[in-house]
């Protein structure tokens, strides 16, 4: 006898049909990325997994536009669990995310980070959760995915590039690399994976314009002459 999936309700088990309804999304702030994501933005109530070669690489550049928008629409904190560096409040505030709306949870052990992440997802006032969970296993990620779904939260989990080959319950998985630009590879989404990475600016447009203007105004300093003690001559060091 075959039972329909809808006839069994288990609290910690879900199937692909459980999230067939249209999801709410928050625009990423990157139009080229929005065009490739189901619904046109970051899904609310679903785990988004971001793989990086370095723990903090491009995290804020990628997520800050959406977090700023979400914070304007809802009063509450954005929770950072296990962030590798303390965020620089004035820079984030300059891009629309007030420093007083950030809650940084310092936790070294993986179990403590998982616990803090789940508790934050269950808090009614929390707007979004960013968690660095390099050692998390698939069942643990599934539990967080369910908590995000049940409480309607934005959830971003950061892991290393080596996690790409591991099973994950995330419906959206991205790999972000690059230095001058962000190369965003969407290798798991509803529908086929992207064939080519999406190139996005590593700095917001406003900051990029300021940096470019500053570079144009900068006059190179003249080379510093150094007197050689061994030979009575002047050496010029190339910049």
Automatic annotation (TrEMBL):
Region (Disordered): 218-239
Protein origin, superkingdom: Bacteria
Segments forming a coiled coil: none
InterPro entries xref list: ImuA_translesion, P-loop_NTPase, UCP037290
Name of the featured protein: Translesion DNA synthesis-associated protein ImuA
